[in-house]
Amino acid sequence: MSSAHTKTEHGHTDHNYLNHGSGIWSWMTTLDHKRIGLMYFATVSTLFLIGGFFALGIRLHLAKFGAEPLLDPDTYNKFMTFHGAIMVFMVIIPGIPAFLGNFVLPIQLGAKDVAFPRLNLASYYIFIAGAAIAASSMVFNQVDTGWTFYTPYSTAKTSNGVILLVLGAFTMGFSSILTGLNFIVTTHKLRAPGMTMDRIPLMIWALYSTSIIQILATPILAITLLLIGAEKTLGVGIFDPDLGGDPVLFQHFFWFYSHPAVYIMILPAMGVISELITAFSKKTIFGYRAIAYSSVAIAAVSFLVWGHHMFVSGQSTLAGIVFSIITMFVGVPTAIKLFNWISTMYRGTVTFEAPMLFALGFMFLFTIGGLTGVFLASTGMDVHFHDTYFVVAHFHYVMVGGTLMALMGGIFYWFPKMFGRMTSDLGGRISWVLIFTGFNVTFFPQFVLGAMGMPRRYFDYLPEYTNLNQISTVGSWLIGLGFLVGLITIIHGIFKGEKASDNPWGAKTLEWQTSSPPPHENFINTPTVTAGPYDFR
Amino acid sequence: MTSVSSSSEFQHQHHFKSAEHQYASSKQGIWLFLCTEILMFGGLFVGYLIYHSLYPTVFKNGSETLDWKMGAVNTVVLLVSSFTMAAAINYVQRGLHKIAAIMLALTIACAGAFMVIKYFEYSHKFHVGTVPGKFSLVDPTCGAGGKRAECESKISALLKNPAELEKNHVNAEEVARLKAVISQPKWEMFYGFYFVMTGLHGIHVVAGALLIFWIFIKTLRRKVGPEYYTPVEGVGLFWHVVDLVWIYLFPLLYLVG
């Protein structure tokens, strides 16, 4: 560090992590967690646009505005597969932990970097390699299995493109494991003096719980994907009934990862929301411990509920009942969080800047998603709703309404810290209105469609579903427009935004105690922590 | 540390308080990674357990066609390599670079020996035709989309041809076992597991050997020593896990049946 900084205001011509080295090469080889976080930001945003393109294609096709269908069935299946695979494996899973987590976690802990900076950069490149391998399947041999690669279709019937997509997902899983490992060690070993485990911000508790899931669940996905590869290339027969295998075993293996993966997506989002709610209520969070431990509880329960994806797969009634009960149990820690956020806002000084709007949007949409999850967890109702648009609406409310709302909120909240500039609050609000409205217009009709019996994944539908499908498609354009406005607001903010002060929101966690943008090693002097993370009043 | 000085220059990275702090962090990271390795093999073990209970005769017959003597030799080879690896860590910690390098070289030699023995086992399987699903069915007599019964004729044909049996080192005892194997439907299932499990383990042996080679070079260049031996210990732990996985694979595949 060249000059001596005082801890108060300093100008933005100062030395910071953005101008610590210059040129593209200094970014490509950086070991700074903040820069790696921003590299994830750029990558994930690009992939999000591609995944969104496929989504709009699907919706436009299903609106049936023209006499001729927009896509032929085969192309439709491929659109659906790439939309799902890109959004799940490349956007929502890495979105918050790898991008916001990487940027925020070490600063919130008062650390100079993550425990293994080189491993962190390696994780990024492994992710890029995985995404490239998966994307190559779009060029060489397109996949039409859906992102779940269900056997025996994926192993015995369809093209060999599955191998590429599966190998890409395997590689990205490796990246996910390494990031999780890095976060766990960082949280254990690199906390600033005085930062005891009951003083770490709730974002960290969420990321910590997420990392545990990443470490424990991803290896099972890895072996499952390797087995699909082995089935395709060697015909080992573990999932192929023709050779004696059991396709339902694949579902068990797959959901043993992929259900916990749902919490890899949503737990970090809940961490973001905890930060936003307290910062914009100017009030100490209500029930710090309850929120912290409920993250760990969700992580723990997440491993015991995979069977609810298989109620109609022929598993025993007893297994169905047990999985049903445990699944509903997830509602308990989730509701604990929600009630604590509401209690935090109660009698707080609540202001409604863009990040807070996204936080409230999260709470609204996630609640609908969560409550409809209870319907699906009930075995009797699930038989009716299974594989209908009700499920599609449910998981979009949870994953998109939850995770993407939190991601947008997190971006607008930490943006001043990342770039030392403010985004236009009006731009953020317009983006929120469009996304929030569009989201409900898109997915609420799908609950109705599902209850009416429209099956998911289908290329075509009965005439009575037409109106609701068209409403849904119009909603999808609003969402697209909303994200476009958000993107413009962010790009405008990077180049033309007002200069931000060190702590524009008046938040209390450690990242706001350093300059905006932070210096290369986060703090000029390692901070000493003497109180909890949300010491408002 | 009880020991002699070493020429290795070591400073801890900027974000750690001290070398001990960095060492403790690295160790935690390595252990977490090893957990994921165990869990990945765990998926295969679960699958093995399920199919073993579904097709006990297939697994029994399949197991009997494996050469337990070769498996046993390989177990001993890996156990010895674990010992030499542990010794190497100890010597590096004490600054005895020369003998540490010898121990590491021995460990790599053991890994090589393991793979050579594995090569003999695999190539014999390829010759007689006890290979996983798809390839066991590949046979000129099958034609495109041929029937299973005909496709199994590759092994049947071998069993009828004394010259081929002689050439492929198949003795009377093995003939009896192979007959028992193909008498059961779904017999390829066992070989599916055998090749996936030992194959994945084999990849780990090769990766481990490459990592040990990296440590070997570091030791020769005295980049590790009493003050800094984290990579040696980390690679050592990885190697022990590779050994440990084999210690479970060997009885499960070769002996239990």
UniProtKB/TrEMBL annotation, chain A:
It comes from the Bacteria. The keyword Transmembrane helix applies. InterPro entries: Cyt_c_oxase-like_su1_dom (IPR023616), Cyt_c_oxase-like_su1_sf (IPR036927), Cyt_C_Oxase_1 (IPR000883), Cyt_c_Oxase_su1_BS (IPR023615). The chain crosses the membrane at residues 38-62, 82-107, 119-141, 161-185, 205-229, 249-273, 285-306, 318-336, 357-377, 389-415, 427-454, 474-495. It is a multi-pass membrane protein. Keywords: Electron transport, Heme, Iron, Membrane, Metal-binding, Oxidoreductase, Respiratory chain, Transmembrane, Transmembrane helix, Transport. The keyword Membrane applies. Its EC number is 1.9.3.1. One of its GO terms (biological process) is respiratory electron transport chain. This is Cytochrome c oxidase polypeptide I (Cytochrome aa3 subunit 1 Oxidase aa(3) subunit 1) putative membrane protein. It comes from Leptospira biflexa serovar Patoc (strain Patoc 1 / ATCC 23582 / Paris). The lineage of its organism: Bacteria, Pseudomonadati, Spirochaetota, Spirochaetia, Leptospirales. The gene is ctaD.
TrEMBL record, chain B:
Belongs to the cytochrome c oxidase subunit 3 family. The chain crosses the membrane at residues 30-51, 72-93, 99-117, 193-217, 237-256. GO terms for biological process: aerobic electron transport chain. It is a multi-pass membrane protein. This is Cytochrome c oxidase polypeptide III (Cytochrome aa3 subunit 3 Oxidase aa(3) subunit 3). Its EC number is 1.10.3.-. The gene is ctaE. It is found in: Cell membrane; Membrane. Pfam families: COX3. It comes from Leptospira biflexa serovar Patoc (strain Patoc 1 / ATCC 23582 / Paris). GO terms for molecular function: cytochrome-c oxidase activity; oxidoreductase activity. Its main location: membrane. InterPro entries: Cyt_c/ubiquinol_Oxase_su3, Cyt_c_oxidase-like_su3, Cyt_c_oxidase_su3-like_sf, Cyt_c_oxidase_su3_a-hlx. One of its GO terms (cellular component) is plasma membrane. It is an enzyme of class 1 (oxidoreductase). Keywords: Membrane, Oxidoreductase, Transmembrane, Transmembrane helix. Residues 1-257 form the Heme-copper oxidase subunit III family profile domain.
